[in-house]
Design goal:
This protein has 150 residues and is mainly alpha-helical. The chain has helices spanning 3-31, 38-50, 55-62, 66-78, 100-121, 126-149; strands spanning 53-54, 82-86, 94-98. The longest helix has 29 residues, at 3-31.
Amino acid sequence: MVQDEMEFVEDLQMVISSIRKKIKPVIQKNMAPYGLTLPQFNIMLALHREGPLRVTQVADYMNVKPSAITVIMDRLIERNFVKRYQSQEDRRVFIMELTKEGCKLLEQLRIANKQIMSKYAAHFTPEEMYTMIDLFSKFDRIISEENLEE
């Protein structure tokens, strides 16, 4: 790799890391009044986007082992945001699904998060936003494809 390319890669890593570090507490603060953690929110978001999922699929989505998901899921179930049931095809498999209450809460959080992100997005032109989304989406696809090959 050429020196300029290495510097670019390091700069990209630093920027992504910096953005994550700065936005995470903002989102967590937004969820605090609802008593929800970021991992709980991400699980609910995955179930909203993908529909009912097996526990192992939720773990894959979160990039953790299924045992790590259990405690998070139990808390969501206790609060009636998520329900868990056995698969009809395979009784060893458990399916997770958002409840109506979970959908309502998720919608409130999504609206609140959009308001926060809109504040930051207002500093960009629509063209810049589309370009940024396209580039990050492409980067995400490349990483996903390469991870599948490994």
